[in-house]
């Protein structure tokens, strides 16, 4: 019932069987598309780590440290960590071709550049090259010594061997690893000698081990230890220190640059460490050549391609995301490129098992008062089992802190990505829907395998099959349908779209339909799972709603949190009640219904479409019926208490805006005026840095954890800008007001993210409504990058504001 493990292959065969020229072309394009996605820096948890989209295969990673003293243990860089660097990330990156990352490492006095370039060709997904450059920073000692380690590991079937003589003191010139795996075929991996000086010394250890040679250590270790390559390196350094240092006694120890080197032992193995020690600046290449490609990659090829990839990226970027007035100065384009490149350069491929509690414990029914205590006890019984393994191709919220897939974040990530590369987007959506279970559930947080788990405290690892998360991927599918419609409306557009957004196989309408036809049953499965498992108990409400059954409640709440809603600590009804109805959830079901109805129409599923239309109508009705508070002039959560059935719980903030943010409030709705007032009121949501998550006038503003209780979040602000634009562009009673709010909010958001980025070198998880400063997670390259789209939205002021904001 899931997608076949190799849908591309299946489709290819199906198409070839039809022997149509067009279909064969589509299959060809699909192969090219798939090949160009095979390799990438798909280990975004590392500063630089390369792997293919293959569960168990060849992986690589980079480590470096200064070797000036004996603090090396603390300055070796490998996994992304917060607050150790002065900024890092992709300045320019395209998943199909490659790009450039720069890393500023003050403690090691060095700036590192990693350029990664793909070379198509051959039967096994092509070749690639990486150029690693080190440039001492201004405050570096004149003879700064740096050690750099590139490693490769091999999992699964195949072999990997480092060429060279273990009797030598080290390798002169280039180092070559030869290998083969079933998926990659035969290949060669070359670490070039590169450029740069090497430390020299009169110390006798330099006779034994001159540092102008490259050290290669190959070994075979248990496969489950392979991801801990830094520990492997440290163990090998220690073994060598124990051997080397005692030789010279305490009176004459070798200098640090010599002490922290591995023993040279090239050979067969599943892990190969390649170490170089430099003085001052350096540069070397890592060249992976598939044997089936016409020729092996050389450093000259890499130089040529780096230039062409860089200029290709700039041209495409300008076409798709050129910032509009007033963001016309060069600096905004640089900023926008960096944010977008980090979003797309953060895409990873994950593979492994995950912890799921399928106990179906009766406490998880949450049907009595005090349910959260019983549920907490059930969770504490800790009966989760390992499931899988499964694979996921996805973008991530933050490389240092959350380097893994989050369901509702991904819908936001893909909104800019779908403008850039439709096929890539559809591939990622497919990967997420591959994770669906028989009931229709997709886990909110994808913590696949031990490496991913090592970043998460145990109590947060378990996923529960009755927990939901906003179905934002449906928004992306809607955006895809918009593109298909645009092509249909103007067929001359087809070519333009194809070129502009890698609309490759999908420029072909049949292929687009084929994709949707395969996805549709999975979308339906999730849709009905949502409606069933998150249904609200609306029997208690004496409302028209009784007959339409449209009211919803997030499962898995505790008194202080509804993590599943995504708005973790946003204030809700107190105490929790099984009869609660959540406004944000009915809004999400609303947008999901609209989207799936549109797909059903597209696929001529007439009966389905009629059924969805009914639900949509009922949802819109019940929003007003169950959730509108005339007194507060706002949409609100609802609950049952001892005195009052259908008591409305109005904590003004993002939740109150949800029907509007999800496009369920018509431009002529009599309620829209009040919603826009709430948005524009400085004592409520409006701040000069963006919309606050919770009203400034709320008794809970900035209280407790203060996570979703005031700070500004870009995902919700993006939805607001988009909906305001929508109202501003059509005739209606609120058009003028919406236009003003749109114009001001757009400027405020861009200025806020830009100023923080300029000052700190990073995008942040959220922004402070009083100061505009970025806060919480540093290098949050996920939905904060929606500002890229906000910049490229139209100026509605006729150019009145120029540049300076
Ligand atoms: C817990 C801590 C080293 C919280 O961006 C991902 C999510 C959002 O989906 C959600 O809406 N973030 C937001 O409220 C971050 C969640 C991180 C949980 C990780 C373990 C790791 O300690």
Description:
- Residues 1-13 have low confidence and may be disordered.
- The protein is 37% helix and 19% strand.
- Helix 10 (407-420) runs parallel beside helix 13 (473-489), helix 11 packs antiparallel against helix 13 and helix 19 (654-661) crosses helix 21.
- The protein has 805 residues and is α+β, with helices and mostly antiparallel strands.
- The structure holds N-9'-methoxynonyl-1-deoxynojirimycin.
- N-9'-methoxynonyl-1-deoxynojirimycin (6A9) is lined by residues 397, 402, 406, 408-409, 455-457, 460, 566, 568, 782.
Number of helices: 23
Which kinds of small molecule does this entry bind, naming each only once?
A: N-9'-methoxynonyl-1-deoxynojirimycin
Principal-axis shape equals globular
Main beta-sheet annotation: 14 strands, antiparallel
Tell me the structural class: alpha+beta
Helicity, in percent?
Answer: 25-40%
Report the β-strand fraction as a percent range.
15-25%
Question: How far is it from the N-terminal to the C-terminal residue, by CA?
Answer: 53 Å
The tally of strands reads 26
Uncertain ranges: 1-13
Mean pLDDT value: 93
The radius of gyration computed from the alpha-carbon positions, rounded to a whole number of angstroms, is: 28 Å
Short structural description:
The chain has 805 residues and is α+β, with helices and mostly antiparallel strands.
């Amino acid at each position: 019932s899931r997608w076949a493990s190799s849908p591309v292959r299946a489709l290819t065969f199906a198409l070839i069987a039809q022997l149509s020229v067009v279909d064969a072309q589509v299959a060809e394009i699909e192969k090219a598309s798939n090949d160009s996605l095979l390799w990438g820096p798909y280990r975004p948890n590392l500063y630089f780590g390369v792997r293919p989209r293959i569960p168990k295969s060849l992986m690589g990673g980079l480590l470096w440290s200064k070797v000036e003293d004996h603090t090396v243990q603390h300055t070796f860089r490998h996994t992304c960590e917060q607050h150790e660097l002065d900024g890092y990330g992709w300045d320019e990156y395209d998943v199909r071709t490659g790009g450039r990352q720069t890393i500023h490492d003050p403690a090691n006095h060095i700036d590192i550049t990693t350029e990664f370039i793909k070379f198509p060709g051959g039967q096994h997904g092509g070749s690639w090259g990486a150029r690693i450059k080190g440039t001492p920073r201004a405050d570096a000692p004149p003879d700064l010594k740096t050690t750099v380690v590139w490693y490769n590991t091999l999992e699964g079937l195949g072999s990997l061997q480092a060429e060279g003589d273990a009797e030598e003191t080290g390798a002169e010139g280039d180092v070559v690893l030869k290998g083969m795996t079933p998926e990659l075929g035969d290949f060669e991996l070359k670490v070039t000698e590169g450029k740069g000086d090497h430390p020299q010394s009169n110390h006798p250890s330099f006779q034994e081990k001159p540092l102008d040679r490259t050290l290669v250590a190959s070994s075979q270790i248990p496969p489950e230890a392979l991801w801990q390559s830094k520990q492997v390196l440290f163990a090998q350094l220690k073994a060598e220190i124990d051997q080397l240092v005692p030789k010279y006694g305490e009176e004459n120890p070798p200098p640090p640059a010599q002490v922290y080197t591995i023993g040279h032992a090239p050979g067969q193995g599943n892990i190969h460490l390649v170490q170089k020690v430099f003085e001052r600046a350096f540069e070397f290449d890592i060249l992976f050549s598939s044997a089936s490609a016409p020729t092996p990659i050389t450093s000259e090829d890499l130089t040529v391609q780096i230039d062409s990839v860089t200029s290709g990226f700039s041209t495409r970027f300008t076409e798709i995301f050129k910032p509009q007035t007033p963001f016309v100065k060069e600096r905004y384009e640089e900023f926008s490129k960096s944010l977008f490149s980090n979003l797309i350069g953060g895409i990873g491929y994950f593979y492994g098992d995950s912890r799921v509690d399928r106990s179906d414990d009766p406490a998880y029914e949450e049907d009595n008062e005090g349910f959260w205590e019983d549920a907490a006890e059930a969770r504490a019984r800790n009966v989760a089992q390992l499931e899988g393994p499964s694979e996921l191709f996805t973008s991530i919220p933050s490389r240092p802190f959350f380097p893994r897939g989050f369901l509702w974040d991904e819908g936001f990530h893909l909104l800019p990505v779908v403008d850039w590369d439709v096929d890539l987007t559809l591939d990622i959506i497919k990967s997420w829907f591959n994770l669906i279970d028989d009931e229709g559930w997709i886990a909110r947080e994808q913590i696949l395998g031990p490496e991913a788990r090592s970043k998460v405290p145990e109590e947060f690892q378990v996923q529960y099959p009755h927990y939901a998360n906003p179905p934002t991927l449906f928004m992306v599918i809607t955006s895809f349908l918009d593109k298909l419609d645009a092509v249909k409306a103007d067929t001359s557009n087809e070519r333009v779209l194809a070129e502009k957004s890698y609309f490759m196989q999908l420029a072909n309408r049949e292929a687009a339909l084929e994709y949707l036809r395969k996805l549709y049953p999975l979308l339906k499965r999730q849709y009905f799972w949502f409606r069933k498992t998150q249904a609200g108990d609306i029997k208690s409400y004496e409302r028209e709603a009784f007959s339409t059954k449209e009211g919803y409640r997030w499962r898995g709440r505790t008194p202080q949190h509804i993590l599943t809603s995504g708005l973790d600590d946003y204030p809700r009804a107190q105490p929790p009640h099984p009869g609660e109805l959540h406004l944000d959830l009915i809004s999400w079901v609303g947008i999901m219904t609209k989207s799936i109805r549109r797909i059903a129409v597209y696929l001529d599923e007439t009966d389905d479409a009629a059924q969805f239309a009914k639900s949509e109508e009922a949802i819109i009705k019940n929003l007003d019926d169950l959730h509108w508070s005339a007194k507060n002039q706002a949409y609100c959560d609802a609950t049952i208490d001892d005195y009052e059935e259908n008591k409305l719980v109005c904590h003004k903030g993002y939740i109150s805006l949800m029907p509007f943010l999800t496009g369920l409030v018509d431009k002529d709705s009599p309620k829209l005026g009040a919603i826009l007032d709430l948005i524009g009121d400085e004592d409520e949501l409006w701040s000069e840095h963006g919309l606050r998550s919770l009203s400034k006038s709320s008794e809970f503003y900035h209280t407790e954890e203060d996570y979703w209780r005031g700070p500004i979040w870009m995902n919700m602000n993006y939805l607001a800008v988009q909906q305001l634009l929508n109202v501003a562009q059509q005739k209606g009673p609120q058009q003028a007001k919406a236009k003003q709010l749109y114009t001001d909010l757009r400027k405020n958001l861009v200025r806020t993210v830009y100023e923080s980025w300029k000052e700190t070198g990073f995008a942040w998880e959220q922004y402070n409504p009083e100061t505009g400063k970025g806060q919480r997670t540093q290098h949050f390259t996920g939905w904060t990058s929606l500002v890229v789209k906000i910049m490229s939205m139209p100026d509605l002021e006729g150019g009145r504001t120029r540049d300076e904001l």
